[in-house]
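This section describes the prediction task in plain terms. A model, or a person checking by hand, is given the sequence of a single protein chain and must write out its three-dimensional structure as a string of tokens. No templates, partner chains or ligands are provided. The sample shown here is typical of the held-out split.
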Amino acid sequence: KWISIGAIEPQFYKTLIEKTGAYALQKYDQMDKENWPEMHEILKEIFLTKTQEEWSKILEDDDTCFAPILSLADAPHHPHNVARKTFTEIEGYIQPNPAPRFSETPSQIQWSPRKIGIDAEKLLEEWNIDEASIQQYCSKYL
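The expected answer:
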């Protein structure tokens, strides 16, 4: 699984080096683009030593500008998203809550999501797809 790092500002970059043990980066000027290929290789080798979950435990609660790249299945269960109530479940479907949120006029989801493919035939007809192709698609996927 993937992770993201955005430790650009000096204090975040320093924390990243300390938390990862990437002390070899200290000999490079962080902002000199010519150094980036070597710096990338150093970080790559370090990050390949642990899983996304292990790096999350090490880096997530500090100022390292780190985040795991989450799948659609994992995102609703991530502690950050749970705490912020980013997702909701309606009629068995997990979906994002409205954003931004307003204190004076709170947003709300007003209906459940449409069934996948419910408009497929109509849309395919509007796109001038021939009837045989529409029936073939619908019998295969819907």
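For orientation: The chain has a mean pLDDT of 92.
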